[in-house]
Amino acid sequence: MTEIIMSQTPPILHGPSEKERKYDRQLRLWAANGQAALESANILLLNSGPGAVGAETLKNLVLPGIGRFAIYDEAHVGEADLGVNFFLDDSCLGKSRSQSLTELIVELNPDVQGTWYPNEDVKTVEPLLSGSQVFTAIIYTHPIRPDQLELLEAYGREHKTPLVAIHSAGFYSYFQINLPGTFPVVDTHPDATATTDLRLLNPWPELAAFAEDMTKDIDALDNYEHGHLPYVTILLHYLKEWKVEHGKYPASYKEKAAFRELVKSKARPSDPEGVHENFLEGADAVMQTVVPLSLPSGLKEVFEYQHTDPVEQKSGFWIIADAVKKFYEEHQCLPLRGNLPDMKAQSKVYIQLQGIYKTKARKDAAEILQIVQATPGGEHVDPVEVDLFCKNAAFVKLINATGGWGSEITRADRLKSAAAAMCDEPDELDPQIPFAPSLLPIYLALQASTTTTPSTTPPSADPPAALTADDLLLSIAERVPGADAKARVEEAAGEVARAEGAELHNVAALTGGMVAQELIKIVTKQYIPIDNTCVYDGIHSRCQVLRL
Amino acid sequence: MASTTVYPASEPERWTYLNRVRTRPGPLTKPDFSGEGIAAAMESMRILVIGAGGLGCEILKNLALSGFKDIHVIDMDTIDISNLNRQFLFRQEDVGKSKAEVAARFVEKRVKGVKITPHNNRIQDFDEDFYMQFQLVVCGLDSIEARRWINAMLVNMVDAEAEDSFKPLIDGGTEGFKGQARVILPTMTSCIECQLNMHAPRAAVPLCTLASIPRQPEHCIEWAHVIAWDEAKPFPQLDKDDPEHVGWLYQKALTRAQEFGIPGVTYALTQGVIKNIIPAIASTNSVIAAACCNEAVKMASDSAPFLGQGLDNYMMYTGDDAIYTYTFSAERKPDCPVCGQTARALPADPAWTLRELLDSLAALPEAQLRRPSVRAAGKTLYMQSPPSLEEQTRPNLDKTLAELGLDHGQEVGVTDPAFATVLFTFKLEFPKDKRQ
Q1: Which residues span the membrane (chain B) (predicted)?
Q2: What is the largest CA-CA distance in chain A?
Q3: Taking the model in full, what pTM does it have?
């Protein structure tokens, strides 16, 4: 048999292309569609300060093959740059930092194009932004000049471009993502263990009939057949029995534990070939799979979100989301994902059962596609997008659902509530109780260092005087009254004062890694980006995401 | 506070930024902190980097830009095209060359004044004398076995009488969007062997599933790899990097999948399964390597507390669902075979054959010993080598533990050629109703 098939199919080797080989380890994470999205992206970095974190971010975007990047950096390479930035060397001294960085970064990947500013034609930020290049996302590093920041924000508002601010100094850093509006993610890549949805308490007729047929004489089955029943059919069988006896399905933890023991007890220990593992697999799966239908919080947020923005109205995402909502209202369940975990069974039986799940998933998706196509504008929605949504319905996520441009009031409110939570924390921690204090003090201290002028000497002094911890605390207290009295705020201010704006290469590399990762998620619309600020504490070696 | 003196390094201007932080006291430095000799001390420290791959390239760059000047690197691998998406010290034209050598030359050329000594070797090629010359070891490896080996070496080297014998180990690891950085202070903190159960091996698919009831594409691929290849021997030796060999396995797996109606066998999956490929990206490597080197800087300069010094010694990082870190204290295990003092309980049954006991040692997350040799009560029960001894002890494999006279509570000594220096001591633990 094998021989015949072999000779009928000519052995075409579907070997990978050169590019697939180069990107193999990342294609396993975001696949060809993610890679294509990366390759069509164009990222602008507005670099200032020591500038290492910007370079490290770009490195991590150029290696996986971002399409294009541009660096705007007014600095000229000095000796101090060489101690912190890997993409500069002695031959760059005195030259334009943006040119030198571009040359040494673009060299990392021949597939990527890089340009640098200011140059002979474009001397400031304004013409760069009004030129023909359209940027997918813009990164800038602190300290940035207020007039340049204004230009970037105006560009972001106009073109709906995500902006990422980064600040790295001493052992601390933070970065903050400003998305132009609500950012829905469908392809969230949930953990494989979380995606099992077997509908054991709500089997549809085909599934119920299949299980019924396999288990109607369960005790009369020979040992081999009994030991190869897929656990889905085992659980469905004993659930039915349980319901007859108890009048309802097992619901509480205690009931489910009893049901689990019941399943285990049916494993026919008498079989000399060994205990029937399929029953043990089934018993192990009880807690996770014997569950009522529910609406996950992420999708609930999608269903409840008022999308009145005309652009959002017309987007495929919202048309599909509305269709799924209709489907849910009608059937009281989500479209089935349709995957079946591996379980002990004969090949043929397993494939049949897998087919039952897949068929149901396809049917659900087809119904939703029909609703979509009946919606005004829905005729343009790609059926592939509908399929993906149906597969991931339980894991769809809205990022920045209440933020976006022009919501400064809510932003101030969010800072206020984060600050209030921080102020309520005890100064002294009990080492016996695991507690990770808020990293807001670091954010406040870093921010204060860009908005404060030293109190000790006139601003015209050369070199300018360093900010003291007291200067920073004063500034923090203006923003968050009372915060300066907190020990951890004092500590953060002291640490930021010590750094005096200096970047450490490790902190820059770590932060650049995280920023690149987040941009990849945003560009590919895969995995879940942070919402919206990530603070890093290199002294206690941890991060925290805050919504600010 | 911040106006205290900045002490210079040998190139004061170049290290302006670093010196501001490492040579001045901060809010969390110890009261007796002095920045005076720090730059010079870091310059003269000799550091060993193990691995010049995804993490290793980053680690070499980071250490060179952290003021360390005497760095050695060990890696026996050569550069492959699939490295280029993250191992940023390598270019297309370097494919096939030694990773350690190319990485060392690149960083030396880019960062003036740093000396990087490459070793195109396995870590097992070196002995205690070699490892004794370093003050710190930073690991960027993808193999648990290599980590366990260097961990056992460094723990065994500790001599309470000789301060120089104590070598901190900083270890990083990544998988896709996830990773970890940990600091091990041999004999003081939890060691890699103590934490072994956090890296449980993937459960193997039973042979009967592969042979008769495949259900997943992976089952078909494993069948081609384990069974079909051995039967047909299409090439003298399987080379998992040879597209012709992988292509042969792919065709076999595909044909089998078609017979059983199983969808999903692809070339990429075939390669992934047989080589056990773990996804790897530049950004995660950047995060984890930097987290490791940040600990190295804090440790070498005393400019801030480092992991292992206070309560916490382990940072876990997850980047696929937002960003999440969990920094905690991994506990030392008193029955750790490498750094502990007592024998570890080993669940067993008197009705087991010795072979079953040995198989359980491979599968047990806290043992993971694949080629164990066993002694108990002064008798050799089974030896993997030399061949003559193996043959002589082989009959014991089919005897039950009861037949071999092993009882509940019996201590057994296990060695494995992968960890030649370690004697793993276990204490048999029988079910309550089967104890004598």
Answers
A1: none
A2: 95
A3: 0.94
Q: Which two tokens stand for residue A359?
A: 């068929």
In the prediction, which pLDDT does A404 show?
47
- What is the DSSP secondary-structure string of B355-381? HHHHHHHHH-TTT--SS-EEEETTEEE
Domain ranges of chain B: 16-199+280-328, 207-274, 344-434
Residues of A in contact with B295 (CB under 8 A): 541
Q: How far is B422 from chain A (nearest CA, A)?
A: 32
Residue A105: is its pLDDT beyond 90?
yes
Name the H helices within B302-395. Answer: 354-363, 387-393
Give the structural domain span for A513. 18-181+506-546
Whether residue A464 is predicted with pLDDT greater than 80 in this model: the reply is no
Q: Is residue A326 over pLDDT 70?
A: yes
Which homologous superfamily is B344-434 in? Answer: Ubiquitin-like 2 activating enzyme e1b. Chain:  B, domain 3 (3.10.290.20)
| pLDDT on residue A347 | 96
CA distance A1 to chain B (A): 9
The one catalytic residue among B57, B139, B194, B208: B208
Is the Cβ of B14 closer than 8 Å to some Cβ of chain A?
A: yes
- Do the beta carbons of residue A476 and residue A521 sit within 8 Å? no
**Do the beta carbons of residue A437 and residue A542 sit within 8 Å?**
no
Cis peptide before A118 (omega within 30 of 0): yes
Nearest CA in chain B to A18: B81
Report yes or no: A118 at the B interface, CB cutoff 8 Å. Answer: no
Residue B101 is which amino acid? E
Q: What is the pLDDT of residue A457?
A: 57
Beta carbons of B274 and B225 less than 8 angstroms apart: yes
Q: Cα–Cα distances in Å, from A533 out to A174, A180, A437, A439, B313?
A: 7, 15, 16, 11, 25
pLDDT value of residue B2:
44
Which residues of A fall within a CB distance of 8 Å from B81? Answer: 18, 21-22
Task: Dump pLDDT digits (tens) for B256-314.
Answer: 999 999 999 999 999 999 999 999 999 999 999 999 999 999 999 999 999 999 889 99
Residue B208 among the catalytic residues: yes
Q: Could A24 and B289 be called an inter-chain contact, meaning their C-beta atoms sit closer than 8 Å?
A: no
Tell me if residue A521 falls in helix, strand or coil. helix
User: Rounded CA gap, B94 and B89, in Å?
Assistant: 9
Side-chain-side CA neighbours of residue B68 (13 Å): 33
Give the rounded percent of residues in chain B with a pLDDT score beyond 90.
85
Query: Which chain A residues have a beta carbon less than 8 Å from that of B105?
Result: none
Do A476 and A330 fall into the same domain? no
- CATH 1.10.150.130 for domain B207-274, yes or no, is no
Q: Quote the tokens at residue A221.
A: 């089955």
Q: How confident is the model at residue A14 (pLDDT cuts 50, 70, 90)?
A: low
Average pLDDT over residues A434-451: 93
Which CATH architecture best describes the domain B16-199+280-328?
Answer: 3-Layer(aba) Sandwich (3.40)
Element (H, E) at A354: helix A347-374
Phi/psi for A14 (5° steps) reads -85, 55
Which string of b and e fits B17-31 if b means at least 16 CB within 10 Å? bbbbbbbbbbbbbee
What is the ipTM, given to two decimal places?
0.94
